[in-house]
């Protein structure tokens, strides 16, 4: 008869699940999938562009399709036509979350098992164990840096002309539709824009429409036929009359050039048809808004005029930057730029500080980094007032990956030193067999 | 906008016609986000003319090369009613009519099939534009809602029929005593319609043929 008292107790479902998440095999599976995502994302980047590939493979929870034909062409395998494979795979965001979970669970498991072994054999936690734990925490910290960057990073650019002051910059990829009351102008001089983020209208392609309203706004704004890349052109015979506004039409443009290279996302010109519907009379006013327009579309309701426009999202800086002087140095006897430098004044809380931004020396101030990105070549050549373009980035976790890498290196080094010391000590005792390492 | 521009769309449309309709996005959303505009930002001018608002067209809006429009035979099957003839659309019609037919002793009756991508502005707006062409007042919301339905590509299409003085697109003078029939269906991806117009007596004589033609229209199954 079996002694049930000594029979091992079957682990609960929760323990089993925890065991899977904490296992080395799970880490291998996640890392393999991450490798696959990286590979596929790199291949699709060739025809879909960096921004779209990143969003699909690395900034997603799930991947629902693989563009096989594009991947084949990227691998120099000639394939004409389309071949999209519907599939459900975990996206980069989910995989990195799972990897973080694996690292946390694995770390906890290791602490518990080593503590138990230590208590059993009366051995205190050693340098090796502490090192491994530091390495685990470092990797989790690195993944956390990625998450913070994804959620909080702001990137963009700003053009500044000499003697001009700016306190905001324009995003590279994020757009919005803004509505501003233009007339009568606000008495206090404070201008305010009502914003519709692109997450609320980017899906309104091919005739889809959505109506936006706000308390106090004398009209509702219907946004329809959004185009990710388009241009305005004069209407021609044959154009559907319903699409013609004031003699112009919004024409969708291909997302690839003649050589099938994708138009970079930041260079795409988005636009849409908009319809302002008078809240009282229900009278409709149809308009076109496009990112390259020189002035917003004006809607006049009663004695009030509003400007409606579309553009890249503006991010506010907690300080002002004034371009004092732009200096461009050229290689002797040529027109080729050797160095270009922006002399700026940063103004915060009434205090001014003079700073210099050049190609290899970004300005880091108030949590923002300003990189010298471009300049007005025409103005630089003809003299007169110069313009400079700064790439601006704000990322709270900017230095976290570096910190985590250093910490991981220290942790692994501690573990190595401990094992090496142990090995050398055991080797010194020739009559004692060498214990295998237990990392 | 010529039909040719939408060749890539036409196959999905045919496929879509074979399936059930897609969801119409039409909800209302409150604007919740606001932003204080920088005091350094330039104040935009008010009521700028379109010609001044948009960039220089010739230089900045290159024409996209248009392929030839697809033949209707490649996309659809249909039965041409007796006495009707298929013609090649010309002028403005070339960009809009997928299939163009004439009937009557002097070929003065027209019946054509059109496809407009992106919903074409909606059924009600288009039907009321047709009413205007016939010198009629637009339908009220109640009248529009009460319109009968007829089958078109296996879907319910709003059916309209009205008489009046017809002013064709691009024409300044109306021709008197005409009749117009139409069957129109739209969703968020496209609008497709069959429209017949001609002298009243001739159209009345061909109403059964119109129904027969609409019923016979079938998308070609993609292989």
UniProtKB/TrEMBL annotation, chain A:
Pfam families the record matches: ResB (PF05140)
Domain of life: Bacteria
GO BP, one annotated term: cytochrome complex assembly
Protein's membrane topology: Multi-pass membrane protein
Bilayer-crossing regions: 20-40, 83-105, 126-152, 400-420
Domain (ResB-like): residue spans on this chain: 311-378
Record has Transmembrane as a keyword: yes
Key words, A-Z: Cytochrome c-type biogenesis, Membrane, Transmembrane, Transmembrane helix
Subcellular location as annotated: Membrane
Gene Ontology CC, one term: membrane
Identification of the protein by name: ResB-like family protein
Organism: Roseimicrobium gellanilyticum
């Amino acid at each position: 008869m079996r002694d049930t008292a000594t029979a091992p107790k079957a682990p609960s479902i929760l323990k089993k699940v925890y065991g899977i998440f904490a296992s080395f095999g799970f880490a291998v599976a996640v890392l393999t999938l991450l490798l696959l995502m990286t590979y596929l994302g790199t291949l699709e980047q060739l025809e879909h562009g960096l921004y779209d590939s990143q969003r699909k493979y690395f900034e997603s929870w799930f991947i629902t399709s693989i563009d096989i034909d594009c991947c084949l062409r990227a691998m120099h395998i000639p394939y004409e036509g389309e071949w999209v494979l519907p599939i459900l795979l975990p996206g980069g965001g989910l995989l990195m979350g799972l990897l973080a979970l694996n690292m946390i669970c694995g770390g906890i498991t290791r602490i518990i098992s080593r503590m138990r072994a230590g208590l059993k054999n009366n051995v205190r936690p050693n340098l090796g164990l502490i090192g491994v734990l530091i390495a685990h925490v470092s990797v989790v910290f690195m993944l956390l840096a990625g998450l913070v960057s994804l959620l909080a990073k702001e990137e963009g650019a700003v053009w500044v002309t000499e003697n001009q002051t700016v306190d905001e910059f324009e995003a590279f990829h994020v757009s919005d539709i803004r509505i501003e009351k233009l007339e009568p102008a606000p008495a206090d001089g404070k201008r305010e824009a009502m914003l519709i983020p692109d997450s609320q209208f980017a899906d309104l392609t091919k005739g889809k429409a959505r109506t936006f309203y706000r308390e106090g706004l004398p009209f509702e704004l219907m946004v329809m036929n959004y185009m990710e890349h388009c241009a305005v052109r004069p209407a021609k015979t044959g154009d559907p009359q319903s699409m013609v506004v004031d003699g112009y039409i919004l024409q969708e443009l291909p997302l690839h050039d003649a050589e099938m290279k994708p138009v970079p996302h930041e260079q795409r010109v988005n636009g849409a048809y908009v319809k302002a519907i008078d809240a009282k009379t229900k009278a409709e006013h149809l308009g076109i808004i496009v990112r390259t327009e020189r002035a917003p579309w004006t809607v006049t309701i009663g004695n009030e005029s509003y400007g409606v426009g579309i553009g890249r999202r503006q991010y506010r800086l907690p300080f002002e930057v004034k371009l004092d002087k732009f200096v461009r140095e050229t290689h002797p006897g040529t027109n080729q730029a050797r160095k270009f430098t922006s002399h700026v004044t940063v103004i915060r809380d009434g205090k001014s500080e003079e700073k210099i931004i050049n190609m290899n020396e970004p300005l880091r101030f108030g949590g923002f980094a300003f990189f010298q990105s471009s300049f007005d070549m025409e103005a630089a050549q003809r003299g007169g007032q110069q313009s400079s373009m700064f790439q601006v980035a704000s990322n709270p976790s900017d230095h976290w990956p570096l910190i985590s890498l250093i910490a991981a290196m220290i942790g692994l080094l501690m573990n190595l030193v401990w094992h090496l010391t142990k090995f050398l000590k055991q080797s010194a005792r020739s009559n004692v067999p060498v214990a295998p390492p237990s990392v | 906008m010529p039909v040719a521009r939408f060749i890539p769309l036409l196959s999905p449309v045919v496929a879509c016609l074979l399936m059930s309709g897609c969801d119409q996005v039409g909800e209302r959303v409150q604007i919740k986000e606001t932003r204080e505009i920088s005091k350094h930002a330039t104040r935009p001018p008010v009521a700028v003319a379109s010609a001044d608002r948009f960039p220089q067209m010739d230089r900045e809006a290159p024409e996209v090369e248009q392929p030839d429009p697809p033949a209707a035979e490649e996309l659809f099957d249909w039965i041409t009613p007796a006495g009707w003839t298929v013609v090649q659309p010309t002028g403005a019609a070339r960009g809009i009519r997928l299939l163009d037919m004439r009937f009557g002793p002097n070929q003065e009756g027209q019946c054509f099939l059109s496809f407009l991508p992106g919903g074409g502005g909606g059924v009600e707006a288009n039907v009321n534009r047709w009413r205007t062409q016939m010198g009629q007042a637009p339908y009220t919301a109640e009248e529009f809602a009460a319109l009968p339905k007829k089958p078109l590509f296996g879907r319910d299409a709003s059916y309209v029929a009205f008489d009046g003085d017809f002013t064709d697109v691009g024409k300044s003078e109306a021709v008197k005593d005409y009749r117009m029939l139409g069957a129109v269906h739209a969703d968020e991806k496209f609008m497709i319609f069959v429209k017949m117009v001609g002298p009243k007596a001739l159209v009345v004589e061909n109403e059964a043929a119109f129904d027969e033609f609409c019923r016979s229209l079938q998308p070609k199954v993609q292989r």
